[in-house]
Records
---
Amino acid sequence: MYKTCLLLVLVIGVISRIDATPVNSHRYPSCSGNISATDVDLVQLAMNVEFTEAEFFLKASTGKGLDAFNATLAKGGPAPVGARKANLDPITKRIIEEFGYQEIGHLRAIADMTGGIRRPLLNLTRENFAMFMDRAVGRRSNPRFDPYANTRNYLLASYYIPYVGLTGYVGAIPYLVYFNFKRLVAGLLGVESGQDGVIRTLLYERQDETVEEYGGVTVAELTNEISILRNKLGMCGIKDEGLCVPPWLGAENRTTSNILAADAYSLSYDRTPQEILRVMYGTGDEHRPGGFWPCGANGRIARMFLDKRYYGNCGAC
Ligand SMILES: *[C@@H]1O[C@H](CO)[C@@H](O)[C@H](O)[C@H]1NC(C)=O
Ligand SMILES: *[C@@H]1O[C@H](CO)[C@@H](O)[C@H](O)[C@H]1NC(C)=O
Ligand SMILES: *[C@@H]1O[C@H](CO)[C@@H](O)[C@H](O)[C@H]1NC(C)=O
Ligand SMILES: *[C@@H]1O[C@H](CO)[C@@H](O)[C@H](O)[C@H]1NC(C)=O
């Protein structure tokens, strides 16, 4: 295991250089979270991530999506596309099922306090995950990467989502004004980071397993590549780290294991609303929807950034 971590350290050194290439070429990206937004706007932006997690976790573990449990939370948003029951081992299934129910609670908490938002169109198809993974690794999977095929693939796909929610909550809290919103987001952050920690621990145990869809790339390497992709899409430096890091990114510069991603003080990284949108759209541009949210995210913040030119085929949603 230690050997894998060391090898990866060399690889990361090379890749992080390529990292600086901007994806978003036509605008200088903002890395300031100080945007004109109310507490309601900020927690409603988070609902987009919570809807995505709810569907992904519930469908994968129970075979049923959010609407089967609470049909009113989506507020008439379009049916999510592509999620399905995953072929999970019994323990992972139980864990993911619990996470799914937790997301329903999170959505209810935000909806009860703010009235909620319409669920955006969610693209949870195998093709969409394969597209993100292919981009992370830099080549096409063969056979195609299927997040629902087995526990390992599902955990790798899960690596993509709660962590984005976590960084968004860390980024939002300093800008919240009211006590009840701070309390809400602190509570959401606690559980979200717990989910991320569990997913990363389960992956850490499998760090040396190879992913045949990518010709024997290990789980640890793949997590690094996903993190590098997210850093690239977010365009605001290192906010994301894989399971094995060079010592200068490890806790107190003393370790290469990296179950929890954090900064030099071992504090969680934060992301702004724009970074969240860039990463989840997969376009590196908060104005240009795609990826998990092909018609754009909902709520005032996301809609404020959305460029109507890219709205194209999404009249229906
Ligand atoms: C955010 O922007 C407002 C208006 O420009 C300014 O008054 C405030 O001090 C800024 N807050 C932070 C934390 O930068
Ligand atoms: C669905 O969530 C809403 C918002 O919290 C709540 O008012 C409603 O009772 C829930 N419905 C069910 C069936 O749990
Ligand atoms: C979902 O993503 C895949 C891969 O990018 C794409 O082929 C498909 O058209 C998308 N589906 C929707 C409904 O946006
Ligand atoms: C770890 O190394 C980095 C870069 O070399 C340095 O900036 C940081 O202060 C070091 N942290 C500790 C706790 O020594």
---
Amino acid sequence: MMNTVVRMVKVMVVLALALPALAGAQVQAIVGAGLVDVIEGRAIENAVVVIENGRITAAGPAAEVSIPDGAERIDLEGRWLAPGLMNMHVHLGLILPGLMTAQHAGESDAELTLRMADNAKKSLHSGVTTIRQPGDSRHADIALGRAIDRGVLPGPRIVSSGEMVNITGGHGAGTEMHHDGPYELRKATRYQIRAGAQWIKIAISGGIATPVGGIGQPMMTRDEIEAVVDIAQRHGLKVTAHSGSAEATRVAVEAGIHGVEHGYFLDRDVLRLMRERDVWYVPTIVVSQPGTFDFFERIGSPPWYMERVYEVGQDHWRALEMAIEEGVNIALGSDQFPYEPNDGTTATIREAEYYAEAGMSNLQALQAATIQCARMLDMEDDIGSISVGKYADIVALEANPLEDISALRTLGFVMKEGRVYRNDWE
Ligand SMILES: [Zn+2]
């Protein structure tokens, strides 16, 4: 008996010694590429990035960074390294009116989860290493995020809101949802938190994809919004709001929300209020712009849907331009699958290009797609830039995106936490 215990302890000691030794062997060095520092806004030619166990331990000019003996070299000569892209408005289970609705009618929980896992894999492959999911069905997003964290499935890191907290008849509310008044909204918020939500998403106005009510109508009342914010804050969570109008946004910002999604119709006054209160704006500008019309045709969007898209297009663009002028903090979100083909690239990359077209510098557009998202998520210690101590979430491009944001179109390499998921140049 004693011998058995001793043997077991010995085995455990050997395992304990072996594990760090194995893990310690995981040292990589990316060499030959330029590096974009999104915090300082500078480009470093011929840089070296050293990665140990998935985290960056050194990054800088080749002359200043020593490569540890035995490091696995990843040669990306002539390419440019940028932080893994982030997309803050993704529904991996997205179903829009038209062919998608018909195709996925009666989708089971298992089918939904598998479809989302496939979308997660494609998203990562397209260069997106972290997403926020502001509302998906049946908590499949939470299960999927945990599976990805455990390394069971490939995909971006997921920060999830669970299901959207909604009112009866609100935008995106299913027919079974009946939460009205502050009491019921408190309960609905707690339900999402118990399920594992890391943010809370509410719909305070109408939207494009719901044929009932105007897009700008402020459907959720002030006391309802305050109730949600109160419960979320008691759990240390932030609240972001689907909002279609300045009127709805003003009430919600005054009630203490932390983020505004879409903002199809916003004015300068409310944008200034957002900036004063440090409220984030996630524009999802692709959903209303011509680059996406091909997509709507492909998925058979019905005429009423397209009418609503056309209705918001110009004002949505103006809201984005004004938000940039007013210095509102913007984090990139597409409200399309991150990898969805859009105007010859992906929805994520097209979204970043639109920001530059609407007035951002190339650096600001790249920041909106990386470090700004990390800041919004309070995760800037771990992600958002190629910096010592952070996870090695890195993409590589054929050109320097600080000179032209469209360099993102040449993305051909994706690493997440030190693991290479794509290398087109091998
Ligand atoms: Zn959405």
